[in-house]
Design goal:
The protein is α/β, with parallel strands linked by helices. The chain folds into two domains: 209 residues, Rossmann fold (3-Layer(aba) Sandwich), CATH 3.40.50; 59 residues, no CATH class. The protein is built from nine helices and eight strands. α2 runs parallel beside α4 and α8 packs antiparallel against α9. The longest helix has 23 residues. The mean pLDDT is 85. Keywords: Chromosomal rearrangement.
């Protein structure tokens, strides 16, 4: 099966390998190339992803800036290394790779938030996204995953401020230190990362015909149930207040996204409402 390509890029100690392992945890046959202590650039993890509706192959490509861990850099120095990486990424020689990407995940250590690292990082990501869109590469997902080095902790107020700052840029933020669901029954943290992969419209995937048909039948059935409930005044099973709150939150989130991501986000919300009903 032709693999789908996802790039995981970040500075040292920002959780790149942990993220790759989490995505691959359901695949016991997942393999990873040799890890060099001097650099995590060029590591490739081959894995697979299966849901009720499809199965696919994934090639997780890990890159790091700087390309060697022999540097002792300031936050400004790391941003400069990211700029150097960006210019190489947009060379003609890398054009084929850019076209093949289904997603890019930028990682960073949330305990660096008190410096000016995050604002500068987001400015670079904005430019990378804009240049990809100029090339017509609008089908892939883009996310920022915040991590904390093993054994360290991050304060709640800091995590909330980070999420707010990333969201303002119209970029999805995933707090890798969280898991489960929020008050709106939306997946967060590690579980949202898995959901991001499971709900993406992959370039290469093998649909499971029978289950896919059952999925479509289930959607039609849920629509009919919804129509019956709305027409029957005695039905009070739908928590309208909760639904309206979720709609308002989704509208606020979508307003800050680019058009291509907004349409994809809207489709995901519709699917979630179908499950909710």
């Amino acid at each position: 099966m032709i693999p789908n390509h996802v790039l995981i890029i970040g500075p040292p100690s920002s959780g790149k390998l942990r993220i790759a392992d989490h995505i691959s945890k359901s695949d016991a046959s997942s393999t990873r190339s040799t890890v060099d202590e001097k650099s995590h650039s060029g590591i490739i993890q081959i894995t697979s992803l299966s849901t009720k509706y499809y199965t696919l192959s994934l090639k997780l490509m890990i890159d790091e800036y700087p390309s060697s861990r022999n540097h002792s850099l300031t936050n400004e120095g790391y941003i400069q290394k990211l700029k150097d990486w960006k210019e190489e990424f947009f060379t003609e020689e890398m054009g084929e790779l850019r076209e093949a990407l289904d997603g890019v995940i930028f990682t960073f250590n949330m305990n660096t938030y008190q410096s000016n690292f995050l604002p500068n990082l987001l400015n670079e990501i904005d430019e990378i996204r804009a240049r990809l869109e100029q090339e017509g590469n609008t089908g892939g997902f883009l996310a920022v995953v915040g991590t904390v080095p093993t054994g360290e902790g991050a304060e709640l107020f800091r995590m909330e401020a980070i999420e707010d700052e990333v969201t303002i840029h119209g970029i999805e933020f995933i707090n890798f230190e969280k898991s489960g669901t929020n008050e709106y029954r939306e997946r967060v943290g590690k579980d949202r990362l898995v959901e991001l992969f499971e709900t993406h419209d992959w370039t290469n995937m093998e649909l499971l015909g029978e289950d896919h048909s059952k999925y479509q039948e289930s959607r039609v059935s849920k629509l009919q149930e919804m129509q019956t409930s709305l027409l029957n005044e005695s039905e009070r099973n739908i928590d309208l207040e909760q639904m309206f709150s979720k709609i308002n939150l989704a509208r606020e989130n979508a307003s800050s996204l680019p058009q291509a991501e907004r349409e994809k986000y809207a489709k995901e919300i519709v699917d979630e409402f179908m499950e909710f009903i």
